[in-house]
Amino acid sequence: MKCAISLVALGLAATAQAAYYEYTTVPGYFLQDEASTDPSTFDYTANNFGLIDRTYDTDNENTKLTQWQRFYNHIHSLNKHAPIRQNTSRYGTPAWNCYWSLLDGNGTVTWSDADLTPSGIAQAQTAHDFWASLIARDGMHTPDAYFVSPLTRALRTANITFSDLALPKGEAAAFRPLVMEGLREGISLHTCDHRRSRSYITGLFPGWEIEEGFSEEDELWNGVTGETSAAQDVRSKSALDEMFERTDPKALFVSVTAHSGEIASLLRVLGHRAFSLKTGAVIPVLVKAKKSSNKCAPEPTTVSWTTSAHCTAPPVTSVTACVCASSAAPVTTPLATGFQLN
């Protein structure tokens, strides 16, 4: 249930409408690429988003340019020459996974597609303030395109972070994100992974664009089968392909507001080293994309989802194992039905 923001710098972007993309991460630009950087202690606000202080072959005698401005010029040159709330502490992890997480809530708190907590709001505001400081102080180039998960906590995170930023003068793209199904959190049996309706999203942020084919109701979550990591990576690869297809070739910076599990999946697809994000954190990645004909694409594979048994009442044990009460035998049917999420 963690939200995270990923700033993707698109270098060596592919061209022409074709079909198959291959992605690699280009190291040497951000501290998060380095094996010596510890994800558990890294603070992006204390490290300039992780941008490494270095020179580029595109640097000129204009020493007044900031590190971010020189980085943008360098990426522009490369591109031109290339085609929420956590509840395990209350119930214990086993009990949370096999019973409580499958409900809409506990009568006091609702976690089905949960909204941001006060802590989440504060973390999004921290990201907003850091963006604002870099824009004002360093002339940082803002995203040329914005993409966001359809889950409420990600929608609100993106809005708090970007909606009222004072954009730099010139050709800065307006904040009008595209809501993409493919950027949602990994789809488990937990109700926090069940998204609300398209109408709800439109009502929440009327000016935002929703991708074509986005269903009114959630057709992926069923409370019975869960998405495997392999299946999520297939979905993430498809989302990346769509982002590259939709984004103007001149666009260099793309913002993705998603979730810790989904960001981890995107990093796997990009070939980036594993880098666990704290809630509300940001990771920049320089991406190289090679686009080729469908003939070069590997044969598609079918990746199945999994099922797991869960209790129909609060389990007996919630510390070391999930033990269902004798009157509540394990089942593989949803515990929450008929959601009122509009």
UniProtKB/TrEMBL annotation:
Any coiled-coil regions, as ranges: none
Entries under SUPFAM superfamilies matching the protein: Phosphoglycerate mutase-like
Signal peptide segment: 1-18
Pfam families recorded: His_Phos_1 (PF00300)
Gene Ontology terms: cellular component: cytoplasm
GO molecular function: phosphatase activity
Gene3D superfamilies referenced in this protein's UniProt entry, alphabetically: Phosphoglycerate mutase-like (3.40.50.1240)
UniProtKB keywords: Signal
Classification via InterPro entries: His_Pase_superF_clade-1, His_PPase_superfam, PGM_Phosphatase
Protein name: Phosphoglycerate mutase family protein
Source species of the chain: Aspergillus novofumigatus (strain IBT 16806)
Lineage: Eukaryota, Fungi, Dikarya, Ascomycota, Pezizomycotina
